[in-house]
Amino acid sequence: MNARLDHRDPLVFDTHELGRRPGALQRLSRSVPAPKDLGIEDVVAVPEGAPVELELRLESVMEGVLVTGTARASAEGECVRCLEPLRLDVAADFQEMFTYPAADDRGRGRAAEPGDDDEDEDTLFLEDGLFGLEPVLRDAVVLALPMQPVCREDCAGLCAQCGIRLDDDPDHHHDAVDIRWAALQGLADTVRDGEKDNMGGAGSGVDEKQEK
Fold it and tell me: How far apart, in Å, are the Cα atoms of 9 and each of 6, 37, 90, 161?
């Protein structure tokens, strides 16, 4: 069973002033603290408690209240190329219908009950004239954030060999070594070392003969 909405929650809105006359409009501006995990986990997100600026348009329609809005905030994360911290502005647009609850035999509104055949499980309902924006905000922000954030579009990233940040040293490079030549060079060094050992051994034999 879902928890009841709390009117003290900054992401809960009251539609009583709007009324139920189709076509009635209400515009709201509100700055709210970001809820926990507002973004893409371990990639980029709006820090918990950071300000989120909301611009909302509430429209009364036959089925309920149509909410259209924009959320603006600053997200933080890590560049996927150079791994440096980054901050980016995010503007997330959304539109959601909050439906009036079904009416019982006496005409009074009631919340949808489990097993109601005619109710869509994805439908969001008004509860005593209140609606909670958090799930809508969360979905909108996640869709507005990049899956692979970069500090800037032309970020050069890190050197694959030594890990240095390439933007700090644009001329950075490593001499390319063909592993086949490296192997031959190693073999040549081994041969030379063997020849030196042999020459040293031969020289010792000559000296011994001269002493005799």
Answer: 6, 17, 23, 51
The sign of the torsion formed by the CA atoms of 40, 44, 49, 50 equals: negative
Q: Is the dihedral of CA 35, 40, 42, 45 positive or negative?
A: negative
* φ and ψ of 28, to 5 deg: -130, 145
Question: In this structure, is residue 1 part of a structural domain?
Answer: no
pLDDT in tens, 136-182: 999 999 999 999 999 988 887 777 767 666 566 666 767 665 556 56
Which of 57-71, 100-114, 168-182 has the highest mean predicted lDDT (pLDDT)?
A: 57-71
- Residue 33, classified by CB atoms within 10 Å of its CB into exposed (0-12), middle (13-18) or buried (19+), is middle
Q: Flag whether 6 is in a domain.
A: no
Indicate whether 33 and 132 sit together in one domain.
Answer: yes
Are 135 and 186 in the same domain?
Answer: no
End-to-end CA distance of the chain: 107
Band the pLDDT of 89: cuts 50, 70, 90.
very high
Q: pLDDT (tens digit, 9 = 90+) per residue, 5-44?
A: 998 999 999 999 998 899 999 999 999 999 999 999 989 9
In a domain, 25, yes or no: yes
Residue 103 and residue 116 in contact, taking contact as beta carbons nearer than 8 Å: no
- The total domain count for the chain is 2
